[in-house]
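1st attempt posting a full record on here, be nice pls
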Amino acid sequence: MSTKLIHSARSVVQPYPGDSVPNAHLIRESKPRIKCQFVGAKEDKPHFKEATCVLPISIGQPYHEGNHFIATIQLINQHFRACVIMICDALQRHTLSERPHLSEQGAYTQAMRLGEAWQVRNSSIYRQLTIPYQIQRWDDWLNSRAYSVQRETTDKLYLSHKEFYGAIHESVQSFLTRRQQCGDLDAVHYDQMYQRCIEYLKEECSVSPLWAQLGIDYEVYPSKGNAAMKFIYDHVVQPRYDGLLKRVRINFRSIHKTLQ
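the predicted structure (as tokens):
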């Protein structure tokens, strides 16, 4: 398996002694109340020690904060050779732009601020990694020539391939239905949000395949992925980068018993 890491990222972070991080000893020595574990990775798990993983960070999701994030970092540190932490901040501008007081530029600025805040808030956690790792931001790929090429491919697939077109709309409808059920989306903004979600997925489907260029073996995430991403993996990633960027699902469970 390839374990090559890119060296031209905007933000490359090297591990350093935990004692130089405020409260690092608490993170290192305490056992989290949340346990993170792999799901359905029995065949791949023996290969993890020689593999590189990418950990996409969804800003605002509780599983990428606090004890959940500590448990995730500990699991990755224990099993993988190297890790790229991908802060998917600029991607969030598509859903932030539904807020009436935010322009497109305002939504982008807010998304970047949220990404920076996440990095500051969680740096004392991911700096506990003792394996080689990097921090990258969504814009590192969005502004690349490789993205423009892949985005053109994605747009062509959307227009010409019924299965991909259907997968995009199935994923959007599923997401918006959940938003409506939670009372987070009204009928007035539904159509507008629908189009923004399509752009969100097209962009996600154009950036994530590029991570295989880093020689990344596995993508670690708490869900199995949507139908659109599965299509891109099967029809774009797998044919070009056989064996790379396989998704490994993780889940969490609470530890109720006090650990001494």
